[in-house]
Design brief:
The protein has 4 helices and 14 strands. The chain has a domain of 125 residues. The strands form 4 sheets. A 5-stranded mixed β-sheet has the order 9-12-13-1-14. Strands 3-7-8-6-5 form a 5-stranded mixed β-sheet. The chain has a two-stranded antiparallel ribbon with strand order 2-4.
């Protein structure tokens, strides 16, 4: 039986939900997707705070910085640290207006596993696009499908060349559902 994997996204249909802004470091610098979408451990010292872009209902799982950076309640972070310790790095954050501790999740695994033929549509950056650092990576991916035989032991990861995709194993999905985590949606890939 092959392993199943799911794209983990924020449930944007929760009525009255909050929306989180870009994480801010100790010196007032933005610590958003350029820092936390690379799939590598980072060294961030000092407190991180996250402003509310839109006040509302606090969720167990949210994506800050325009849907890029996972932010979770401590109990969700503990679950990820237990089930996928080699895949995530956790940073305590202070979410504006909240007394409760939250954690920013830096996913530190990148897996080259997108199945171009099985995905609906993929396109790549080319030299003609004028961004040489992106040539050969994905410009867009619609109907994402992955090749599970390429994943190895990763349970939480981002896809090579299309780092915006946050993928979890069926084990992680079921654990999050079992404890009733709010703010998540899953789509099998």
């Amino acid at each position: 039986m092959s392993m199943r994997y799911f794209k983990l996204s924020e449930d944007v249909y929760v009525p009255g939900r909050w929306e989180l802004g870009t994480p801010i470091g100790e010196q007032g610098q933005e610590l958003g997707s350029p820092v936390f979408l690379q799939g590598v451990p980072v060294d961030v010292t000092g407190p991180i705070r996250i402003p509310l872009y839109q006040p509302g209902e606090a969720l167990d799982f949210s994506l800050a910085d325009a849907g890029a950076v996972p932010v979770v309640r401590s109990r969700v972070g503990a679950l990820l640290a237990e089930l996928a310790p080699d895949d995530v790095q956790l940073f305590p954050v202070k979410v504006e207006t909240q007394q409760e501790q939250y954690l920013l999740v830096n996913v530190i695994r990148i897996v080259k596993c997108i199945d171009d033929r099985a995905s609906e549509e993929v396109s790549y950056w080319t030299e003609e696009d004028g961004l040489p650092e992106k040539v050969g990576t994905y410009f867009s991916v619609a109907g994402l499908r992955i090749d599970p035989t390429q994943v190895g032991d990763a349970k939480v990861f981002r896809t090579w060349g299309w780092h915006i995709a946050l993928i979890v194993s069926e084990e992680i999905k079921e654990a999050l559902e079992r404890v009733g985590v709010t703010g998540t949606t899953f789509k099998e890939v």
